[in-house]
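Q: Structure tokens for this one, please.
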Amino acid sequence: MTFYDSVADQDTQADENKVVNTALTPLQTPFLSGLKLEGNIQLWNPSTETGLTLNTIDSNDVVWVVTDIDGWWTLPENELPDLPRGWGDGSYDAVGRWANRLITLNGSFLPQDPDDVATARNTLMSYLSPMVKTTTAGYLIVTEDGTTKKAAKVRLSGAPQITSVNARGRHDFSIGLKAVDPIKYEFVDGDPDGYENTTITESSGSATATITNNGNVAVPIIIETSAQFTIPDSNNPPTITNTTSDQTITIVGATAANHKLEIDTYNREALDVTYSGSTVTNVANGRSKVAVLVDWIYLEPGDNTIDIAEFPTGGSVTIYYRSGWIG
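A: Here is the predicted structure, written as tokens:
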């Protein structure tokens, strides 16, 4: 069913009136005013790789409804430094930063049987409590356009408010969350933190790959070298460059057998990670293996060309990345 009038050229007052009047006409139920249980919101625990799906009916026939996600749809607060211009008027133009994103998740759970209230409440608590003390925190995942999952890593902010509404067991909740990284990242199923990855392998000392950030803001990446990474020529150490943004990381230190160098450009750290098979057994500071002067590579919106050069034979890096949106 079509809910709008298509007007090829709004070059007459009548055409303009038709478009405006259609835009002001409310849609029929259930398109906006009715309840749509699309399962498009999730609280995700990366440690257990399980999630609580909201806007759905669970296995106990409890209805989970989200009525609003305050702070999700808008830009986060920004902070601009005020640098006075000495004796002149005003201040110097300075680059600012985005503050953390504060989110309030509002909704209800509605059991058919009052006996299911305790189970529903405990289920909600089981996904909120890890957001306080565990290192992995949790994710709020929202499928905004019906296809793309966007996620923010969140911690619990304040005490959740859960209020009993009626005898059948309806409870309303209001949950404060804080995303210290305000970017909403694309979340890809199959990885506990939603990352995609691309591996670039040395070919005659160098190689290139194109990585696309489908979002609207520059995003950090994680770079992992192949195991037992060597430096073929200390006078020309291996480099990783985003030629799109002209950012380069130079590797100056080799890794031992069963070790990989992991560079996190968000936390601006390099770690020497020990593996037994695919299992991490130890993590140590590896900052000395990266040049003192380093560009912490970010992916700009759109296509980014990543080059590796002066790599050992068969050497490679795996880039872990996610598209990102600030608004």
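A few notes: The chain has two domains: 41-186, 196-325. The chain has a mean pLDDT of 91.
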